[in-house]
Inverse folding.
């Protein structure tokens, strides 16, 4: 990946830190943003050393959402070819966020300050969401005469329920970290950005210390059960555990318990 401008990646043990790094634009999401996001998550998926991904951001805002200036410049045509280009651009953006949800490794989002529009799409595709107390969220698309199209309308109802979801999606209003915690969109509020990153590291380190195949299988089963229902989900996990119960990590877990020590998992 050459000429990357939207992100930086740091790896610390089994944790990959993906940092949005366009602070001068408040980490606005343009076409290159989604292209780079796709590249990074393909790499995380292929890297067996990565067990958890944390998404955070540099600058004053987590993200201001879609880069409206770029969008206005890119899609001004009225012909069928321009409409088709726009359709493909939307699908590419959707797929980049789909890769977060489909990534076998858990993804933690640590949001501070503004998390607007596409930022909510992004967070909705993550497994765990935490925020600093100054965080402000908005499904703002109705306020700028468009429809949210990168996953919020499909994923957020499963996270917070239809009641809150419909109010937020239809009004486009801002909602605070306290409200986000109350409705279950985020699970923790931190005092400031430094505390937020520390909390994200604590969560990620805990997950990274668990048996990776079991964690990944759990995420896979959660998503499958959500999309297919209770009884298909039960059959699915029965099949997965029929394979997983033969893992070396399970033997390590039992040995560690008997020896009264912390287990060391290898993902085998």
């Amino acid at each position: 990946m050459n000429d990357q401008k939207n992100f930086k990646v740091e790896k610390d043990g089994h944790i990959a830190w993906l940092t949005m790094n366009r602070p001068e634009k408040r980490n606005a999401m343009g076409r290159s943003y989604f292209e780079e996001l796709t590249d990074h998550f393909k790499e995380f998926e292929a890297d067996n050393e990565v067990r958890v991904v944390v998404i955070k951001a540099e600058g004053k805002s987590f993200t201001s959402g879609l880069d409206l200036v770029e969008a206005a410049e890119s899609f001004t045509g009225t012909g069928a070819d321009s409409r088709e280009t726009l359709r493909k651009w939307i699908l590419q953006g959707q797929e980049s966020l789909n890769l977060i949800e489909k990534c076998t490794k858990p993804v933690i989002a640590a949001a501070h300050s503004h998390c607007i529009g596409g930022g909510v799409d992004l967070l909705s595709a993550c497994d765990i969401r935490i925020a600093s107390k100054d965080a402000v969220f908005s499904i703002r698309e109705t306020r700028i005469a468009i429809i949210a199209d990168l996953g919020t309308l499909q994923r957020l109802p499963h996270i917070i329920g239809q009641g809150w979801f419909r109010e937020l999606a239809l009004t486009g209003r801002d909602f605070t970290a306290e409200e986000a915690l109350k409705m279950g969109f985020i699970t923790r509020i931190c005092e400031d950005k430094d505390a937020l990153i520390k909390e994200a590291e604590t969560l990620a380190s805990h997950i990274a210390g668990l048996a990776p195949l079991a964690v990944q299988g759990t995420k896979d089963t959660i998503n499958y059960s959500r999309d297919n229902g209770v009884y298909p989900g039960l059959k699915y996990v029965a099949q997965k555990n029929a394979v997983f119960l033969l893992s070396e990590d399970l033997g390590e877990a039992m040995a560690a318990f008997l020896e009264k020590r912390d287990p060391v998992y290898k993902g085998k």
Summary: The chain is about 50% helix and 15% strand. The longest strand covers residues 7-12.
